[in-house]
Design brief:
Layout: H1 4-46, E1 48-49, H2 56-59, E2 63-69, E3 75-81, E4 90-94, E5 98-99, H3 105-113, E6 117-121, H4 135-152, E7 160-165, H5 167-178, E8 183-187, H6 193-200, H7 206-209, H8 216-220, E9 227-232, H9 240-249, E10 254-259, H10 267-271, H11 273-283
Helix pairs in contact: 4-5
Pfam families: Hydrolase_4 (PF12146)
Protein name: Serine aminopeptidase S33 domain-containing protein
Domain Serine aminopeptidase S33: 90-195
């Protein structure tokens, strides 16, 4: 039988064990809650759409409103600006993960002035379009954009150039595995979405949680098309090392354009002269 002193010593020890177990249970609950929230709401961190853009004519003179139809029946808003040069190449532009097509109008306008036609479109869930963005959904939207050029406008496939910006680089690279373009242009590309997420959320098991993968490098290895890679050397969103890896993996003939001092969302990368010149050169 325990003595009175032994019972007195046992009681504080039991209390400490109980408190420790409660703290550990609370921490475990917190971790599980964070992981569940990250899994459920991850697409709100990936896709950052803005509302309906203004009329095309107000931001991109000479452009007209067009509608794309996806295989699952969504109707997507888009703008098309026709070059004054007969038979000119057409640049299919796939946006990054934020904003809408109006933010890419300055680049489209510069390309049009340099003799290129341009199709600007918004993904599902962007720019007032119906639907919710997903990896599969964006791939379908890009196919609809290409089909509009080929089917509706009669553009020869060998006159279509794909231009992808950030997230859009993965979208057009996948599209190129199905429908090779005349040229592929990747601005601020990453190797895969998980690799970018690990940089920004190192405390999360992102490879386990991610539902949308965007394995750009995997698709790029399948291609045999002229490729241009453009990136800034001070990018804080997509690590420069990843863009460099994409450039090293790109098929020949390839060209690499490094915009010195440019961060991910700087105007120099959105519509700067190096970017415009690189697109024009790749499209010839």
């Amino acid at each position: 039988m325990a003595t009175t002193n032994e019972r007195r010593e046992t009681l504080p020890h039991t209390r400490r064990v109980r408190i420790t177990l409660i703290v550990l249970a609370a921490l475990l609950l917190l971790v599980v809650t964070v992981l569940v929230l990250a899994y459920v709401f991850q697409r709100r961190l990936i896709y950052l759409p803005s509302g309906t853009p203004p009329p095309a004519s107000s931001v991109l003179p000479g452009a007209r409103e067009v509608t794309l139809t996806t295989h699952d029946g969504l109707r997507l808003g888009a703008w098309f600006i026709q070059s004054t040069v007969d038979g000119s190449p057409v640049v299919l532009m796939a946006n990054g993960n934020g904003g809408n097509r109006s933010g890419r109008a300055p680049l489209a306008g510069e390309l049009a002035r340099r003799g290129l036609s341009v199709l600007l479109f918004d993904y599902r869930g962007y720019g007032g379009n119906p639907g919710d963005p997903t990896e599969q959904g964006l791939a379908s939207d890009a196919r609809a954009a290409r089909q509009y050029l080929v089917g509706e406008l009669g553009v020869p496939p060998n006159k279509i150039v794909y231009y992808g910006e950030s997230l859009g680089t993965a979208v057009v690279t996948e599209l190129a595995t199905e429908h090779p373009p005349a040229a592929l242009i990747l601005r601020s590309p990453f190797t895969e979405l998980a690799a970018v997420a690990e940089e920004h959320y190192p405390f999360l098991p992102v490879r386990t949680l991610l539902r949308d993968r965007f394995p750009l490098l995997e698709h790029l290895r399948k291609l045999r098309v002229p490729t241009t890679v453009i990136y800034g050397d001070t990018d804080s969103i997509v690590p420069t090392a990843q863009s460099r890896t994409v450039a090293d993996t790109a098929p020949e003939p390839r060209r690499v354009v490094i915009v010195s001092g440019a961060n991910h969302n700087d105007l120099a990368l959105h519509q700067g002269p190096q970017v415009v010149d690189a697109v024009v050169t790749a499209s010839r």
